[in-house]
Amino acid sequence: MTRCERFDQCVAFFEQQAKKLPATTHFMESTYCLTGNHHCARFVFFMSRGEDDIPLDLFPCQHVRGEILSRG
Question: What is the reported pTM?
Fold first, then answer.
């Protein structure tokens, strides 16, 4: 498996969430970071904005929220 090329930019997110939700964090990493980042809201946000200011509290599964934030 290949890790998403943007993983290093999401490390702070995963470190913060791992403290609160370790099993969920592991699931998200294996689902969104190792199998296909095109489904990741954080990656989609980055691709649409072209910026590294991805909200720290944006979960990979929050597609609708990511789309709304990326427009603003």
Answer: 0.84
